[in-house]
Amino acid sequence: MIMADLIRAAIVIGMMFVRTRGMIWLIYPLLFFETIGWAFFEPGRNAVIPSIVGPEDVILANTLSSATWSFSLASGRRWEA
């Protein structure tokens, strides 16, 4: 999970080097590989929640995790426009 996140961070940093219109094509493979990294990170993050909290708090922890993700997604979409 940590390795997937570090790889994703490196890929996103790589996107900062796209500076000209001629390099814009580079964004597409970088986004593809970032999405593959997300596919490894996200299930790991969800699987580790029961190891972090007690059995009685798993539902609450999953709820808070989902709410945080949804809020981040919604606020990111709002500021994108």
Explain how this protein is built.
α1 runs antiparallel to α2. With 81 residues, the protein is an all-alpha fold. It has 3 helices and no strands.
Helix/strand layout:
Blueprint: H1 2-15, H2 27-52, H3 58-80
Question: Strand share of the residues?
Answer: under 5%
Average of per-residue pLDDT values: 86
**Multimerization status:** single chain
- Whole-angstrom Rg: 16 Å
Largest sheet, if any?
none
Structural class: mainly alpha
How many DSSP E strands? 0
Low-pLDDT runs of 5+ residues are none
Order of helices and strands: HHH
List the defining traits of the structure above.
81 residues, mainly alpha, 78% helix, elongated, 3 helices, single chain
Briefly say what this structure is.
The chain is mostly helical and 81 residues long.
